[in-house]
Amino acid sequence: MDKYTVLGRAGEGAHGLVNRARENATGQIVALKKIPLKRLSDGIPLPVLREVKALQQLRRCPRIIQLLESFPQG
Fold it and tell me: Rounded distance, CA 15 to CA 7, Å?
C-alpha cells in the first residue's frame, strides 16, 4: 500500500470499497479495491477469487480495467 497515495473514494464494488489513488513511482491514476474479510481464518471468499482470476485473464480487453497487482494487507 505504500506505493499508492489515496486521493478519495470512487465508489463501491461488488465486494468492497473502491478508492481512487495515484501510484507514487509513475503518477498513474489507479483504482484500489479494498475487500473486507470477516474472518481471516476462513480464507478469501470464492467470488473474490473468481473476480481476481477473471481480471488476470482479461488483461488486454479495452473495456475492462486492467488488474495491475493484488496483495493482502493486515
Answer: 20
Please name the residues in contact with 34: beta carbons below 8 A apart, sequence gap of 6 or more: 16, 17, 18, 19
Sheet-wide strand order for 29-34: 4-12, 17-23, 29-34
Question: Do 32 and 70 touch, CB atoms closer than 8 A?
Answer: no
Q: Residue 68's closest CA among 22, 59, 46, 2? A: 59
| CA dist., res. 66 & res. 63, Å (int) | 9
Give dist(CA 55, CA 68) in Å, integer. 9
Residues facing residue 6 across a β-bridge? 21
Whether pLDDT at 31 is above 70: yes
Per-residue pLDDT at 7 exceeds 90: yes
What is the separation of C-alpha 27 from the centre of its chain, rounded to a whole number of angstroms?
Answer: 17
